[in-house]
Amino acid sequence: PGLSKVVTLLIERGADVHARDAAGATPLHLATMRPQVVSPVCASGANPNARNQAGLSVVDLARQAKAVAFAAWLESSDGCRGLAEAHAHGENVGVDRQQLAVKLFDCQQGDFADCVSAGYAFDIGKGVPTNKKRAGELYQKACDGGRVLGCSNLGISYRDGDGVPVDVARAVALFRKACEGGGRAGCGLLGYQLEN
Hints:
Blueprint: H1 3-12, H2 27-31, H3 38-43, H4 58-64, H5 68-75, H6 79-88, H7 95-108, H8 112-124, H9 132-144, H10 148-160, H11 168-180, H12 184-195
Helix pairs in contact: 4-5, 5-6, 5-7, 7-8, 8-9, 9-10, 10-11, 11-12
């Protein structure tokens, strides 16, 4: 069996995910060296904020191990909970989901282009189940941050009632904001909406 299945079996047999070794490392600290076992350890309630005796968190160790996607995931709003949910549904945390974790983290840090990308991933279900409400939240953050594509996409959500209530007036205002900000898609959407 794969390492992930072995770890899951150990946990099912009573392995303590809060145990510490002589250096104060928890199983989640050790899992950063083998990213495929992070999900089952997270699913068992491991503390992603735990620090070892050297004062290093799980995220610090993930970065040192060049597991950038997992570090970003653990720091994102989905965090260990998101990895646990993926594991509970039998999902692999594949490349799309790892890239999404990085985009979510970068979005939280103010990279509004990545807010648009993350919103789109939730909008179409790339790497995660489709979540139109979450897509709308990310588009809103991008739009508020000056990304006209975020405004256009949020306008479409309001026009179509995807994850938000149908609000054509709000959609038109968002298309106008995108158009005035230099977004051709926003101008096209605005023109179409005003003609119909």
